[in-house]
Design brief:
The complex is a heterodimer of chains A (475) and B (79).
Chain A (H helix, E strand, L loop, with lengths): L1 H24 L3 H6 L6 H12 L2 H14 L1 H29 L4 H8 L3 H34 L3 H50 L4 H9 L12 H12 L4 H9 L3 H33 L9 H9 L2 H34 L1 H4 L4 H23 L6 H25 L5 H21 L9 H19 L5 H9 L4
Helix pairs in contact in A: 1-8, 1-14, 3-8, 3-11, 3-12, 3-14, 4-5, 4-7, 4-12, 4-14, 4-17, 5-10, 5-11, 5-12, 6-17, 7-8, 7-14, 7-16, 7-17, 7-18, 8-12, 8-14, 8-16, 9-12, 10-17, 11-12, 12-13, 14-16, 17-18, 17-19, 18-19
Chain B lengths: L15 H17 L2 H5 L1 E2 L2 E2 H32 L1
Antiparallel strand pairs in B: 1-2
Classes of the chains: A mainly alpha (475), B mainly alpha (79).
């Protein structure tokens, strides 16, 4: 019973934060989307950690290691972590200096074309909705396993709560709740790893036993190159993924944005390493042959912790889910109301804009909820496929658009279309090819080839565009 | 190797420290994917896995050190 009260208290705090924040944000787009650009480095770092450490990171990481082994799982998460230094060096400072809200803002600034205006927000809506659905599944199976709640009831309540605080509180509410959620997550993952390590007598005792009992657990999956795809997807997604770009925009300045990205990643790396090397081996030893690998983390917590800590575990998984999903919901909502409808809404009153933002957020949340009632299997693979679409379409146009002088409008448009088109084509029809191809491994070079071809053969954008881009690189 | 250096190459200039960190991280990651590291094991885990673990913890630390060095250099420059 105490578990349920802990979760109810946690959800109530989130709603109160949303209501309090609404007083500040509803009248201003700047406050609503990027919290007035006043967030300090440490607060932003905790919020980024929480946004990054999704239900997938908490529930999915252990499940993936259980099923695909340690090296392949480390490849996926090392890719995500490598993405942050790439973001720091390649995009964070210039995007912060641009002073806008979203990744679409930059791409439209760099490649002003109707295809960019329409396709980029559409890709964001599709891929982040896929991600949200997988997060909701994590919340549902957690509540089902540890609280004995019905799956659909649990995700419906969780969705109502996060849609409520995001729609009313915007980025301010997302930041405050994410800081709480980040701290809770870090504590739970750390405490679980420490307790398991102390029980086993050493941090790596279970790892040694698990790899001896199941050698495949320590090896790369035979005949599969999926881990290379995982790595590439995440390394190239982080510099362009909308919710991280929005967090960069909330920072006080470019230096603070760069510092917060790497502080967050350092914490995230330690957390993920503890999950893969300490928690997953215990799952392999104690719960062999599970049909749904995503249950492993919850089984381990259920087996080793008393009810109070199990309640905290549910709250932490909900925190992980909500801190990522709220950021995505805000990003999807911004893709619709700011990127797609911005031209029309810009001429309306602030009150009308606020109402449209609110309604859009509820519609997106409801659509994701309906999909999440019949969720797909294996969280991490599912949402990684969604994120791959963003990497394939956006990485080359964003990075070369910032750094390559020859990048031009035609190159940006074609790199976007070819990258995302090739990714979707290979994801859907790749099985029919006579040899296996990871969609991202083919889509990124094709996107790059389209950009380079147009840049070298086409007309340059002109000195005024070059000067505007060069200004983004100056302090 | 000087692809990022300047106008002649078509790329906007990048601070040398950042260029070195970028090249180092990319080379380390590429080396980790050499097939040989997937076959050799250390402590029951493929060496590839240990490379990824090092990247997981090491890459943010490299960048934090780089940002600190840049901050110090800026302070020295402003004095």
């Amino acid at each position: 019973m105490i578990e349920r009260w802990l979760v109810v208290a946690y959800l109530a705090v989130c709603v109160i934060v949303g209501i309090l924040a609404s007083r500040r944000v509803l009248g201003s787009a700047d406050e609503y989307w990027v919290a007035g650009r006043r967030v300090g480095a440490w607060v932003n770092a905790l919020a980024i950690l929480a946004a990054l450490a999704s239900g997938g990171s908490l529930v999915g990481v252990v499940g993936l290691a259980y099923r695909d082994g340690i090296p392949a799982t480390l490849a996926l998460f090392a890719g995500a972590v490598l993405g942050f230094p790439l973001a720091t060096i390649l995009v964070a400072a210039p995007l912060r200096r641009l002073g806008r809200f979203t990744i679409t803002d930059f791409l439209v600034f760099r490649y002003p074309h109707p295809v960019v205006r329409g396709l980029v927000p559409s890709l964001i809506v599709v891929s982040l909705t896929v991600y949200m659905v997988s997060q909701m599944k994590a919340a549902g199976i957690t509540a089902e396993a540890l609280l004995g709640m019905d799956y659909r009831t649990a995700i419906t309540w969780a969705t109502v709560v996060f849609v409520l605080y995001v729609s009313f509180g915007g980025m301010v509410a997302v930041t405050v709740t994410d800081v709480l959620q980040g701290a809770l997550l870090f504590l739970l993952m750390g405490a679980t790893a420490v307790v398991l390590a102390v029980t086993a007598g050493s941090p790596f005792a279970a790892l040694g036993e698990a790899t001896a009992a199941t050698p495949a657990f320590g090896q790369l999956p035979a005949g599969s190159s999926a881990y290379l795809g995982y790595f590439l997807i995440w390394a190239t997604a982080i510099p362009v993924i909308p919710h991280i770009v929005m967090r960069v925009a909330t920072a006080k300045d470019a230096a603070s944005a760069r510092l917060s990205l790497n502080l967050a990643t350092a914490g995230y790396g330690v957390m993920i390493l503890a999950a893969i090397l300490i928690i997953a081996p215990v799952g392999v030893l104690e719960f062999p042959g599970l049909a749904d690998p995503d249950e492993v983390f919850l089984r381990v917590v259920g087996e080793h912790f008393p009810p109070l800590l199990r309640g905290l575990a549910v709250a932490a998984v909900l925190a992980a889910v909500m801190s990522t999903t709220d950021a995505f919901l805000l990003a999807v909502s911004s893709a619709v109301t700011h990127d797609l409808l911005g031209g029309v809404l810009g001429r309306r009153s602030p009150r009308t804009q606020a109402i449209v933002r609110l309604v859009t957020t509820w519609i997106v949340g409801a659509a994701a909820l309906v999909w999440a009632w019949s969720p797909p299997e294996l969280l991490t693979r599912f949402y990684t496929a969604g994120v791959g679409l963003l990497s394939a379409g956006l990485f080359v146009p964003v990075v070369l658009g910032l750094w390559w002088r020859r990048a031009n409008r035609a190159g940006g448009v074609w790199a976007l279309v070819v990258g995302s088109g090739a990714y979707v084509g290979l994801l859907v029809f790749g099985g029919a090819l006579p040899f296996p191809v990871e969609p991202i491994v083919a889509a990124l070079p094709l996107s790059l080839a389209a950009m380079v071809w147009c840049g070298l053969r086409g007309r340059p954008d002109g000195p005024e565009v070059e000067e505007a881009v060069a200004r983004l690189h100056r302090d | 190797m000087n692809g990022f250096k300047g106008r002649g190459t078509g790329f906007l200039p990048m601070p040398p420290r950042e260029r070195r960190a970028l090249v180092g991280l990319v080379l380390f990651s590429t080396a980790a994917f050499l097939p040989v590291f997937g076959r050799i094991e250390l402590g029951g885990v493929a060496v590839f896995g240990w490379f990824m673990a090092a990247l997981l913890v090491g890459s943010p630390l490299v960048l934090l050190a780089l940002l600190r060095a840049e901050r110090m250099a800026k302070r020295r420059g402003s004095r």
